[in-house]
UniProtKB/TrEMBL annotation:
Pfam families: DUF1284. It comes from Thermoanaerobacter kivui. This is DUF1284 domain-containing protein. The lineage of its organism: Bacteria, Bacillati, Bacillota, Clostridia, Thermoanaerobacterales. It comes from the Bacteria.
């Protein structure tokens, strides 16, 4: 399973919203799998991943929202840097969530994610707080 850096945070806030029905169904299935198999190995990436595979913005394996300042690729790299994970590194989902608990803060998340169309809903910050036990 490949997951791009910023999607580790989107997963925390997911409440069934997304670009279209196919996208939502795929993301829901991936999250269920991850939640049921914490030892599953994940390749952390900064390009299209398993969640992107059903996205309408994925054109021939490239994200059309990817290459501009503050875009999703920048967010991937910023998230991975906070979590101390190299793009391409393979680690268990359990380890990823442990790193989020330990290293990601609400302030850092706000800085990375505030220009995202979904961030204003507040679900992602709530997801982070819940993971951290708050
Ligand atoms: S917008 Fe880009 S990064 Fe986000 S899910 Fe779609 S293809 Fe992936």
């Amino acid at each position: 399973m490949e997951i791009r850096g910023h999607h580790f945070l989107c997963i925390l806030g997911f409440r069934g919203l997304g670009y279209d029905e196919k996208f939502v169904k795929n993301m829901d299935e991936i999250i269920r799998k991850l939640n049921n198999e914490h030892d599953m190995l994940i390749k952390a990436v900064d390009s299209v991943d398993n969640i992107c595979s059903m996205c309408p913005n994925n054109v021939n394996g490239e994200c059309t929202e990817e290459e501009y300042p503050g875009s999703v690729k920048g967010k991937d790299r910023a998230v991975l840097e906070v979590l101390d994970i190299r793009p391409g590194e393979i680690l268990s989902y359990r380890e990823v969530t442990n790193r989020i608990k330990e290293k990601m803060t609400e302030e850092k998340m706000e800085k990375i994610c505030s220009n995202c169309q979904w961030f204003g809903l507040g679900y992602c910050l709530e997801g982070l707080k819940k993971l951290k036990g708050g």
